[in-house]
Amino acid sequence: AVRFLDGVRTLEAAGVTTYLELGPDGILSALAQDCLTEAVDVAFVPVLRAGRPGGEAGTVTAALAHAHTRGIALDWRAYFAATGNHARRVDLPTYPFQSRRHWPEPAAEPAGAVAQAGSAAGNGADARFWDVIERADLTALADEFDVDGDRPFSSVLPALSAWRRDRQAQAEADSLLYRVTWQPWAGQGPDRGPAAAGTWLVAVPAPQAADPWVRTLTDRLYGGGATILPLPLDVAHGDPAVLRAHLDERLREAAADLVAGPVTGVLSLLALDERPHPEHPGVPVGLALTAALASVLTSEEFTSGPEARHTGCADAPLWCVTRDAVAAVPGDALGGAGQAQVWGLGRVFALEHPDRWGGLLDLPEVCDERVLTRLPAVLTAAGDEDQLALRAAGPFVRRLVRAGVPTDTTAARWTPHGTVLITGGTGALGRHVARRLAERGARHLVLVSRAGADAPGACEVRSELEALGAAVTLAACDVTDLEALRALVAGLEADGTPVRAVVHAAGISQPPGTGTDLPGFARVVTAKTAGAVHLDALFDAPDSLDAFVLFSSIAGTWGSGGQSAYAAANTFLDALAERRAARGLAATAVAWGPWADGGMAAEGDAEEQLTRRGLPPVAPGTNLTALERALAGRDATVTVADVDWARFAPVFAAARPRPLIGDLPEVRDALRGDAPGGGAATDTGTTAADAAAAVLRRLTDLSGDDRDAALLDLVREHAAAALGHPSADAVAPDRAFKDLGFDSLTAVELRNGLGAACGLRLPSTLVFDHPNPQALTRHLLHTLFPGGSGATGVPFVTDLDSDPQDAELRRTLAGIPIGRIREAGLLDTLLRLAAPDPTASGPGPEAADAAGSIDTMDLQDLLDLALDGGGPDDDGPTGDTTSNSNF
User: Is the distance from CB of 48 to CB of 59 less than 8 angstroms?
Assistant: First the structure.
């Protein structure tokens, strides 16, 4: 085996930051960059490059210069030895001192970087250590290191070394800890907000349709000027096909109410139905109905099929309302913890369908006048905020912040007492936990799984744990079976080994693209939530446990594409922990990021993909230290993840702003230059807006082919930068982006770079909507110079701007994806109108008919036709990607 990855990782671990490639080109330099776990201040310098000006001598000289600027010591005498007297030492010329620095400031290390662990450890622990030394306090020193003060210094040194390593590990773990908090919303004053005008489709559980709480909400919206279309749903509507037909029928009935315009929004109160589903008891009816509703609202048949013409809600945002499902303010009892699963589902929906997402809104059990007054403002003026809780004190918004860590390091190590029950104990994560607990002195470990001692590797795990001094029980028990779990717990108590701590690590993952049908969805949810519910019921007495740990996931904290069931289940675990804590019971839910060495990140190339997107898997030892730190804190829910926000945040917030993470300083730094006119200062003292204005001025001063060529060069340069190429020469103007190697991450990087350079807010689907650099250049030309000519020399239509209605028609047309227009059979017609065949003697009857039909169109006609999926001349798509991009 070549083991190239292992070789590069070994060099990285040894601290190598500059790599010289001695070979025929820079192939290995490009490959090695993807092998690193961290890419901070690392340079790859190929010594030979094919086809470069100056030949081999030029590339070698450039490589040496690059190494020299990075502080690498070079033998310049040897380099210049063959030049005779032509090369000699000279004194640098003097020059007046200037106040402006010419050297860039070194980039700050990310907060979670291992390199900072040592310095972070020195902030608190080292200060206490030197304070003890300064005071010559032998007793305090012995207590700090847990050694006998009368022992000689030679025996204290190993303890000091272990103490230092332990503090470094704690500092590294502390950098991975986050928590969710709720902050007052500054977007709306304390009084009355705007009315919720328009037509609202309100989906309600049929059993709660007449509930006074539901009636109060709908009456308030109606009184504020909104038209309400009730949509009662019951268990049978959990089948998307049944729901689609029912929704279609309901909207047909309400067609008269939609004359004034399409549906403004869809308000779902379905989460209120917490009854167990009759066929899948592990899933609440409300959760199943919400998933079905979201599926229907975003289905191709509903948004662009025949139903779209009369439904009127093909673009309406979806708002999901819950009652007492989040702990937003002190005193919230989380009576609707089961409804919290809709929050996990909603976060995934927000990632997968950002254009159709309204938000999540939690209301209290008692909605007084203050709550009801603010309700319309939240639904109509929330802006980017999409996770809110409305209380009598006002609206609150959800935020992710860094978690506080215990200052008393002696309390940061969990010492288990008595019996510890670990569900999923023979799985990868359960084994890591059991091993750490045995090392910490656990006397009895009960590893629970369906197979018990017959689970693969179970006997080896038992032998390993027993060698560490722990008694081990391999229990075969299905934790989703309450009676079986009850019998296990009772048996342990009867044997004199009652359970004193619980770690619920059982569950199954949801591979992307699966679990969207109700049986698959229920399987993922039940595997995680049923056991947690049963454990909560069995250990609900005060002081019955020292620790109650639930293994949750970041999929529930901020969502994960294709993980709707998994996110819903883990959000329930977080709510369950909050509810237990509110009752004074032990509870800690840890939302884990990817684990290395046995976690899901170890499957296939998941680790490489996650690292590339800013979520490198964390070593089990570091995660378990973070768990101990979390247990020593006061938060009922904690998130543990090593997030490279500079990589993660731009992709996460590509389609729409994500206020959840917006208060983290690293995120603000990562996104500062993302929005046009953001005002971020560059190294030269200018702002991003100034730089974009300079680009626009340069393009404006050019004309015709020169402008086209300059903008094409700009596109190619940014495409090369996103792909890691040294120059734009590697990007052929007519080669498809997908063939160049673009994926979702590099597409976002190109979008960000071009957006900042041109002062535009561009969609994250930029390279998918415009398949090659030439097509993208045409799009940018049209956007920056809407009256000029495109790269093909065909003038853009400008006479539509003369009338306000025509201007609105043009803006609407520009906002419709090309795919929709082609599916509707309009693409070829519009192309013929824009650039008729010059060889024809006249427009011909077909073009005349097309022009006539378009002349009679109003705005709604165009929308209806474009979203219908079939036009008057619908023979299917005939143009290729080039004709699409020409349009």
Answer: yes
- CA–CA separation, 862 and 854 (whole Å): 8
Asked if residue 478 belongs to a domain, the reply is yes
Q: Residue 614 gets which letter from DSSP?
A: T
Which of 172, 206, 222 is a domain's end point? 172
Same domain flag for 514 and 602: yes
Same domain, yes or no: 225 and 164: no
CA-atom Rg of the chain in angstroms: 32
**Domain tally for the chain?**
6
**Residue 540 confidence (pLDDT) above 50:** yes
Is 351's pLDDT higher than 90? no
Read off the tokens for 780.
Answer: 């940018």
Looking at the structure, tell me whether residues 222 and 125 fall in a common domain: no
Q: Are 862 and 809 in contact (CB under 8 A)?
A: yes
857 and 779 in a common domain: yes
Considering the domain architecture, whether residues 635 and 656 belong to the same structural domain is answered as: no
By residue range, what is the domain housing residue 667? 646-671
Residue 184 has φ and ψ, to the nearest 5°, of -60, 140
| One domain for residues 76 and 209 | no
pLDDT in tens, 108-141: 444 443 334 344 444 556 666 666 666 666 677 6
Helix, strand or coil, per DSSP, at residue 505: coil
Structure tokens, 119: 């310095």
Would 404 be classed as within a structural domain?
Answer: no
b/e string for 567-589 if b means 16 or more Cβ within 10 A?
A: bbbbbbbbbbbbbbbbeebbbbb
Over residues 495-518, the pLDDT tens digits come to 999 999 999 999 888 876 666 789
Closest CA to 238 of 183, 169, 296: 296
The position carrying tokens 């227009």 is 821
Domain annotation covers residue 804:
yes
Which residues fall within 8 angstroms of residue 318, CB to CB, at 6 or more apart? 265, 266, 268, 293, 294, 297, 349, 356, 357, 358
Give residue-wise pLDDT tens across range 293-318.
999 988 877 766 555 555 567 788 99
CA angle 553, 554, 560 (to 5 degrees): 110
Residues 597 and 652 in one domain: no
- The whole model's pTM is what? 0.66
Q: Where are the alpha helices (DSSP H) in 681-772?
A: 688-701, 704-723, 737-740, 744-758, 766-769
Query: 480 is written with which tokens?
Result: 């989703």
DSSP state letters, 315-383: SPPEEEEEES-S--STT---TTGGGHHHHHHHHHHHHH-GGGEEEEEEE-SS--HHHHHHHHHHHHH-T
- Residue 723 included in any domain: yes
Count of CB atoms situated within 10 Å of the CB of 361: 24
* DSSP summary character for residue 99: S
Alpha helices in 724-758 (DSSP H): 737-740, 744-758
634 and 659 in a common domain: no
**The domain spanning residue 451 has which CATH number?**
3.40.50.720
